[in-house]
Amino acid sequence: MKVINVKNAQEGGLVAFNLLKKELDKGAKTLGLATGSTPIPFYEELVSSDIDFSQLTSINLDEYVGLAPSNDQSYHYFMHKHLFDAKPFKDNFLPDGLAKDLEAETDHYNHIIDEHPIDFQILGIGRNGHIGFNEPGTSFDENTHVVDLEQSTIEANSRFFSSIDQVPKQALSMGIASILKSKMIVLMAYGKDKASAIKGMIEGPVTEEMPASILQKHDNVIVIVDDEAASELN
Ligand code: GLP
Asked: Residues in the active site (predicted)?
């Protein structure tokens, strides 16, 4: 893993944007995208750029179960607001959180990922080291799957909902095995809430108890951190 230190999320977004530009110049066609507050400055760079995305495909990591795309807490809504409305793509794929048959939806999504190998994957990280919605204990061999969210994740995400009861208890998420298929992975983390996850990811043992630690085994990962997120690193 290569670690890049930045002053703040704005600078981190710009660094990630420049990495993406290089990959697009080399012919990248499919972007793996993430939600959360972390990648917002990166999306701002994309939106204000003159890059044409109309021949590119995007595949998102995850979506809550039970939220319609029109729900302002759904990840469909987030992606439209922060990127897709301003920058049309050829195709935008997100898991369908309203699918009647969730298992069938995971198979369908795995098929989409196989058809469109991800060239450039953006990741944030949860405070417990989750990536996508792969909570601690998730097998590294999982592809897209249905997830029961941990209480700590529900609590962390409740800041976006009017009450904690409104936070969905389940999600559909690309699995660790799906994420590892990406040719290049750029993970961003800012703030002291992320410091222990960043330490575990980079310096800890590779264990399913710290999902992001598996990135030590991928040969093209760049981690962008501010001083606070890097504060526990040796
Ligand atoms: C959610 C998302 C993750 C994201 C994480 C951290 O759980 N499923 O993809 O990385 O939150 O979010 P934030 O960037 O807001 O800290």
From this structure: 62 (proton acceptor), 128 (for ring-opening step), 130 (proton acceptor), 135 (for ring-opening step)
